[in-house]
Amino acid sequence: MRDATQVLVAGGGPAGSVAAGLLARAGAQVTLLEAATFPRYHIGESILPSCLPVLDLLGAREKVERHGFVRKGGAWFEWGPENWELNFDHIRGTERHSYQVVRSEFDQLLLEHAREQGVEVVEGTSVRRVEFEGDRAVAASWARGDRIGRIAFDHLVDATGRAGVLATRHLRNRTYNEAFRNVATWGYWRGAKPLDRGPEGAIAVCSVPDGWFWGIPLHDGTYSVGLVTSKVRFAERRAAAGGDLRAMYATAVAECARIADLVEPAELVGDLKTEQDYSYACDRFAGPGWLMAGDSACFLDPLLSTGVHLATFSGLLAAASIGSVSRGELAEDEAARFYDRAYRQSYERLLVLVSLLYGSYEREAHLFQADKLTRRERRMLELYESFLQVVSGVEDLADARESGLDAIAARLASGADVGGHNRAMDAMPDSERTAVGGLYLAYEPRLGLRRVATTSVPTP
């Protein structure tokens, strides 16, 4: 392994692999350290159409298309009294499908692709600490079994996921979202029925009085089924089952008619898995010499399948920002401000929609309040058509923090302008009209950031 590198990427998940691969394609010297040895298990199997243009830029789209993942045409929702489908055929633009992926295979495909682009990929090697000179990150200590070492860098992309080496060991700047301190419990079923409604390959999202289920068909013949509920209700359910997680899960499945029907002929294989307290954001996503990408910076909630979307989007932003700084096109502080604002804007836009679905930012024991959601938004189909535009990268709610949920829902449903000008198209900050802080993504002649040509263009 090198003793020094232009760019160090810590973590080989989608955020790290995308950032590393794009930077290497642009000619940067990149070293990627990954603590695990791939393939390795990961949750987050339902990806969104917004990921596909990033895969195009990376040159990995064809590999994903050929792999055999289940083609995802949208979603089927049974949410309180409402049933509806989200059909990706209705998206404005060219990307009208995505995939349900086995993450161990998807992530390995991206990591191997990054290696093919010239990235020095070192697996089984974890970043333990980051060294600073003043406020600037300059080097990292690593460990591989009994071996330890040090690698210096010009730029660090922290893509270490929930472990978050910068956030948890140095900056201590991660804040958990109290409204989404939920617990997810999931397992895999073999022999499940195909969903007989909604678009082809759809994820099923089905509410129960104290939470909701996902159901995801996978190309290996299994069906991923997960329950999300509040920590309070999870504890109550598990206590009622005598502490038996499997019995608790079986009881919950039986209470959800759609999911129970899908898995009725199937067998639950392997152990159940759980995660909790997974919704958080750091107060800074970028600083001198470093950027946080993917789950190291923030994670929302599995409800809208946004994890890989945010990971690939932040990987793209990271590569563009570092590329422009390395070429002397922008000052590092300018690029860091752009990165922080653009990534945070995407996160907060989705936070608003998840909050609308759950019914309120503030709730106590119950995760889902159907009556509040119904009062708040009568025109459900219009709201979710707007959601389709958000997740495909063509809607912007940059003023979400300053508006009440009722006002946001009304504007989403009516198609009205948000934030004082029409943002119905292109939430992706890749044009002057959608610039962030006077900067936007440019893909030609190479990936990077560009300043707007006029000060009259409104920016978030």
Question: Would you mind describing this structure in some detail?
Answer:
The protein is α+β, with helices and mostly antiparallel strands and 460 residues long. It folds into three domains: 202 residues, FAD/NAD(P)-binding domain (3-Layer(bba) Sandwich); 99 residues, D-Amino Acid Oxidase, Chain A, domain 2; 88 residues, no CATH class. The protein is 33% helix and 27% strand. The protein has 13 helices and 22 strands. Strands 1, 2, 7, 8, 9, 10, 18 and 19 form an eight-stranded mixed β-sheet that branches. Helix 1 runs parallel beside helix 2, helix 1 runs parallel beside helix 4 and helix 1 packs parallel to helix 9. The longest helix is centred in the C-terminal third of the chain and has 27 residues. The relative contact order is 0.14. About 13% of the residues have low confidence.
List key phrases describing it.
single chain, 460 residues, alpha+beta, FAD/NAD(P)-binding domain, D-Amino Acid Oxidase, Chain A, domain 2, 3 domains, 8-stranded mixed beta sheet, globular
Poorly predicted runs: 360-384, 391-426
Question: Which term fits the overall shape?
Answer: globular
Specify the CATH architecture of the largest domain: 3-Layer(bba) Sandwich
- The overall number of domains is 3
Number of helices: 13
Here the CATH topology of the largest domain equals FAD/NAD(P)-binding domain
**Which class of secondary structure composition applies to the elements?**
alpha+beta
Classify the beta-strand content into a percent band.
25-35%
* Radius of gyration, CA atoms, in whole angstroms: 22 Å
